[in-house]
């Protein structure tokens, strides 16, 4: 299917989804981030779905970011993410990983970890770096977070890491979530006004890989940049949505099933396209 065909299919699917209220749903544990993980609590989240359905009888219940297809239930394949399973074996001895670590040492930046007590100036700077990358460079449709929203996430236990120069200027940052099994990095930003060969992104990823290694965690590098991530030991995983809709009218359940059937038909192609 060519680009125009994909665009037409996308718009038709969006119109169909709005008509049949596919977006009328409850998302437990959803922090409005690109990736949400539940770790050992995923069974608890799934077990809570019937109670949520009773509380919100007009909404589907959707559990997102399952990187293994459930044995039962209605699932949608949605995107491909890159995960480094064993940092010691898959990442630490890679040529590109060693180069990244040398770069991290050479650029002589200080890594700092913050929680909900982060000062306003640092938080504002981090969001400016995020917007310059995710909104200005990538897509105007990406979420535009507020300082209060990020601070609320930090209150829930997420971490904000910065790389700062000797004067305290933040050159790169990432938001991190540690669920006890996996470390994920749902938000990243770096100073795009500097030369591309500064390697700020590489240095930031190297530092966070070190964090995952020390904590004995997997590292979820989210989607995109397949060559960069594969060369550092990451492997592709399909990410799924698990949808609970048995309490909804038949016409709404059919919408979820039709879209799900279409997505499953393109699942192999999605994996291939995302890993080229």
Task: Describe this structure as you would to a colleague.
InterPro entries: Acyl_CoA_acyltransferase. It is a single chain. By secondary structure, the protein is an alpha+beta fold. The protein has two domains: 109 residues, no CATH class; 152 residues, Gcn5-related N-acetyltransferase (GNAT) (Aminopeptidase), CATH 3.40.630. The protein is 44% helix and 22% strand. It contains eleven helices and nine strands. Strands 1-2-9-3-8-7-6-5-4 form a nine-stranded mixed β-sheet. The longest helix is centred in the middle third of the chain and has 19 residues. The radius of gyration is 20 Å and the shape is globular. The protein starts with a helix and ends with a helix. The mean pLDDT is 92.
Brief overview, please?
This protein has 276 residues and is of the alpha+beta class. It is built from eleven helices and nine strands.
| DSSP helical segment count | 11
Distance between the termini: 17 Å
Indicate the CATH topology of the largest domain. Answer: Aminopeptidase
Q: What's the CATH H-level homologous superfamily of the largest domain?
A: Gcn5-related N-acetyltransferase (GNAT)
Q: Measured on Cα atoms, how large is the radius of gyration?
A: 20 Å
> Would you count the extended β strands for me?
9
Unreliable stretches (pLDDT < 50, length at least 5) are: none
Given the C-alpha coordinates, what overall shape results?
globular
Strand order of the largest sheet: 1-2-9-3-8-7-6-5-4
Domain count: 2
Sheet-strand content, in percent, reads 15-25%
How much helix is in the residues?
40-55%
Pattern of helices and strands: HEHHEEHHEHHEEEHEHEHH
Major sheet, described briefly?
9 strands, mixed
Helix/strand-derived category reads alpha+beta
Q: What is the CATH C level class of the largest domain, in words?
A: Alpha Beta
Question: What's the architecture of the largest domain, going by CATH?
Answer: 3-Layer(aba) Sandwich
Q: What does the average pLDDT come to? A: 92
